[in-house]
Write a structure and sequence with these properties.
Elements lengths: L2 H9 L21 E9 L2 E15 L2 E10 L3 E3 L2 E3 L1 E9 L4 E10 L5 E6 L6 E2 L6 H10 L9 E2 L2 H19 L15
Antiparallel strand pairs: 1-2, 1-10, 2-3, 3-6, 4-5, 6-7, 7-8, 7-9
């Protein structure tokens, strides 16, 4: 399962040593998938994981891939999206991020769509979003927002997300569109 993803990750090559400016810290978790976010939206839930094998730091910039999995797969004209990978560059000093690439995958790991974002805008990390604890984790070495929910493989991370979703499934269809407690709070 997820063989296309495994092949893509293998082609990325060895991990560069993370270089942080004086006074900055790198995360102490350096491998696997770390849960960085979860939110409800009407009829669904999303779970986000930082792929720590892709963590690269150059000065104040951190480049990393995140995997996001909807609890209920999302049908599209190209196939059913089981998860997607998004590549972000975080500016630890300016407290911004920019999505530079996004790829969507089916349950068997087949790439459904991939897009590179030309000249991505640097967006501010907004208070109350998953971006705040994610930036603190990636840039300052803070404890991840969901504790040490770390998984060695994407399969294990996706399995954990499904279990969390199963435990909360009954509430999904009762989410009120636009309600503050259920509004997507990603960035």
């Amino acid at each position: 399962m997820f063989t296309a993803l495994a092949m893509a990750m293998a082609l990325m090559g060895p991990i560069d040593d993370a270089e942080a400016p004086a006074g900055a810290s790198a995360p102490t978790i350096t491998s696997g998938f770390v849960m960085i976010g979860a939110f409800k939206e009407p009829g669904n839930m999303q779970f986000g994981f930082a792929d720590m094998s892709t963590y690269r730091r150059t000065g104040n910039l951190v480049d990393i891939w995140e995997n996001w999995m909807p609890y209920r797969a999302i049908p599209t004209s190209r196939g059913t999206v089981a998860y997607y990978r998004r590549r972000f560059t975080f500016d630890c000093v300016a407290r911004t991020d920019a999505m530079t690439e996004i790829k969507s995958f089916s349950a068997d790991g087949q790439l459904l769509r991939g897009d590179v974002v030309d000249n991505p805008p640097n967006e501010p990390i907004n208070p109350g979003t998953v971006g705040v604890p994610t930036l603190a984790f990636l840039c300052e070495g803070a404890e991840p927002a969901y504790g040490r929910m770390q998984y060695a493989t994407w399969d294990k991370a996706a399995e954990a997300a499904r279990k969390i979703g199963d435990a909360n499934f009954k509430d999904l269809d009762q989410a009120e569109p636009g309600s503050e407690s259920n509004a997507p709070k990603h960035r």
